[in-house]
């Protein structure tokens, strides 16, 4: 089974976006999320490797790094929201594929320009993923905002760089 370089990079981004909270745990979350994200997108594998695997990895790391903080357990519902965010597809319509609902919406919004549709679609997904961990803002608003911006900018940038 061959893993896609772009998917590995996206998984690494997801695993490291909230480094201000995960601290040294990012040494574990970056490679593990990169592998699970790519595995979930590989042929003949289940998307649950990505959805559940990355969600559980991040949740475990957040709990471990924030253990003892007041109300850290409130992050558990955030994990459910993050899981939901991972189900949003980022496909753009073309002659072979209808794309995802979000991708089709963005494609129509920008008048069929695939470049901008892709950037807006992936940026929106990054934003939704970042907002799903919104409770982190109560611990450190700037660290949370940095993570949201990293996801929002990183998702579209990766597809252009790799």
Description:
With 162 residues, the chain is an all-alpha fold. It has one domain. It is built from eight helices and no strands. It has helices at 5-16, 19-22, 26-41, 48-66, 75-86, 101-109, 114-132, 141-161. Helix 1 packs antiparallel against helix 3 and helix 7 packs antiparallel against helix 8 (141-161). It starts with a helix and ends with a helix. The model has no long low-confidence stretch (mean pLDDT 93).
Quick tags:
162 residues, single chain, mainly alpha, 8 helices
Outline of this structure?
The chain is mainly alpha-helical and 162 residues long. It has helices spanning 5-16, 19-22, 26-41, 48-66, 75-86, 101-109, 114-132, 141-161. It has one domain (5-161).
- Tertiary shape: globular
Low-pLDDT sequence parts:
none
Secondary structure tally, helices:
8
Strand content: under 5%
Taken in chain order, the helices and strands follow as HHHHHHHH
Counting structural domains, the number is 1
pLDDT averaged over residues? 93
Q: Could you give the distance between the termini?
A: 20 Å
**Structural class by helix and strand composition:** mainly alpha
How large, in whole angstroms, is the Cα Rg? 16 Å
List how many beta strands DSSP finds.
0
What portion of residues is helical?
55-70%
Mind describing the biggest β-sheet? none
């Amino acid at each position: 089974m061959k893993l896609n370089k772009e998917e590995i990079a996206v998984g690494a981004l997801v695993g490291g976006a909230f480094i201000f909270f995960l601290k040294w745990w990012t040494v574990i979350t970056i490679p593990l999320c990169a592998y699970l994200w790519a595995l979930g997108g590989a042929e003949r594998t289940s998307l649950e490797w990505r959805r559940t695997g990355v969600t559980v990895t991040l949740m475990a790391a957040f709990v471990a790094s924030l253990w003892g903080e007041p109300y850290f357990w409130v992050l558990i519902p955030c994990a459910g929201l993050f899981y939901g965010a991972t189900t949003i597809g980022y496909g753009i319509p073309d002659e072979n594929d209808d794309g995802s609902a979000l991708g089709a919406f963005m494609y129509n919004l920008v008048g069929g320009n695939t470049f901008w549709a892709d950037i807006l679609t992936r940026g929106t997904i990054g934003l939704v993923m970042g907002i799903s961990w919104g409770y982190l803002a109560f611990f450190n608003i700037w660290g949370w905002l940095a993570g949201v911006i990293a996801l929002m900018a990183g998702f579209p940038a990766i597809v252009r760089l790799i």
